[in-house]
Amino acid sequence: MGGFYGAVVVRGFRRYATYRVATAAGVFTNTVFGLIISYSYIALWDQRPHLGGYTEAQALTYVWVGQGLLAAMAQMGGGFETEMMGRINSGAIAVDLYRPADLQGWWLAADLGRAGFQLLGRGVLPIACGALVFDLALPASPLTWLLFALAVALGTVVSFAIRFLVGLSAFWLLDGAGVVQVSWIVGLFFSGMLLPLNAFPGALGDVAQALPWSAMLQVPADVLLGQRQGADALLALAFEAGWAVALLGAGRLLQGLATRRVVVHGG
Amino acid sequence: MEAEPRGGAAGERTPGTVAESVRAYRLVVRMWMRSTMSYRASFVMTAFGNFAATALDFLTIVLMFSHVEALGGFSLPEVAFLYGTASTSFGLADLLMGSMDRLGERVRDGTLDTLMLRPVPVLAQVAADRFALRRLGRVVQGLLVLGWALWRVDVHWTVLNVALLPVTLVVGAAIFCAVYVAGGAFQFWAGDAAQVQNSVTYGGATLLQYPPGVFARDLVRGVTFVVPLAFVNWLPALRMLGRPDPLGLPGWVDFAGAPVALVCCALSGLLWRAGVRSYRSTGS
Description:
The structure holds two protein chains of two kinds.
Chain A: H1 2-17, H2 20-47, H3 56-70, H4 81-90, H5 93-98, H6 103-133, H7 142-168, H8 170-173, H9 177-191, H10 202-210, H11 218-224, H12 230-261
Chain B: H1 15-37, H2 40-65, H3 76-97, H4 103-109, H5 112-117, H6 122-128, H7 136-152, H8 159-189, H9 196-207, H10 217-226, H11 234-241, H12 257-278
Helix pairs in contact in B: 1-6, 2-3, 2-7, 3-7, 3-8, 3-9, 8-9, 8-11, 8-12
């Protein structure tokens, strides 16, 4: 069965790789946003040079890593959840449930394929552009990059698991646009996309660090920037894995509840 | 099928067409509003979501100011003033014209043909398509921040400054509307690249929230002379706040917003017509 889901991953990757112009447009937009945010961070770090324990170079690296991961983590849409909601609305979900594949496993495989492409197609270039314009603090050690890759992979699974829950809400709500939007906003804020979580004041920062969204940017970025090294880096990965398992489990429970509700026209 | 350009001859355009466009726009908008209201819970959530999304934007700025007294030499109320004007103008444009970014989709799947066949101006139909009342959330949030900023900020309220504020909001909205129309026209040629316009619309709105002094000089030049976003709020706001502008432009430029917006609208209108004329339906 691994071969089957593997094939879905590959198709997910290829499906998104088809839209080259859209990918280029996305890279352009990420780069523009990276520039704007970079300048606002420079103004901030200019006055508070070690805000959140980052140097200015680290803060700028954080900005560009964030822009690079934005599409892969589907933080502003582009993921599978709207498609799945459409299928729930139209009743096509019944066909999906008939397939000899698990609903969650199918979408996870497809979404990992998508994320893999977005990471290469929309992740690498903005970071390269950022490195051309600003002095970034990118690490030299291959081990750090490996840990970063693992942190990103686990973050993608957490991102999927959250969006799967969001998608399932369509079984109860019919029009899920509102839930999708609220989940984007919460995700953007608590992942650290708007401002690094270690620059959040006091208790808000601690709470934000403990929530699953931090796996989508803050945790991978801290691993890359060497803020979390050695045993602490492993702890970071364990934190992500823990949330991934818990949220996938919750998705499985909710999927069970939801599919018992399915009544397709005609019987 | 080759699409016959609408009203193919420019000569057909009578003053009545503008009125007709507005009337069609209002009809389509009313229809979409009724449709939205049949999913009331979803409308409330999306409107709130729209409000909250932009509110978190502002919260980010507030969080930044929990560490510093001033950003680029501007205090929090002053940045809030920039934020409020930019967000209100952009919110209005997004409400009125935000649907333009779905044109590429319609070109790709061929449903634009349906709009072309109706005896109603295409621009009005595309702009009103799936009109999203929830986008009022952003306008409300922008106005709230602006209200707070006006209460806290130190502006010498001369008659000129009092008049300049509402004009600025309208001019800003018009410039963003022009960007939306130009972006829509662009999608006739490169529908898949629809996202590029986000960097001018959403990106522009984000840029204008911060003082111009924060950015590199060339970037400021670019948004003054190439895409004239500086006229949305930077130039008039700097005057109201009594701050010098980093490019050192002559003073009258601060009042040039209205003509600049008119030129933008005219140019984007021309671009739109060129786009419609070059349109070929899928399959032809």
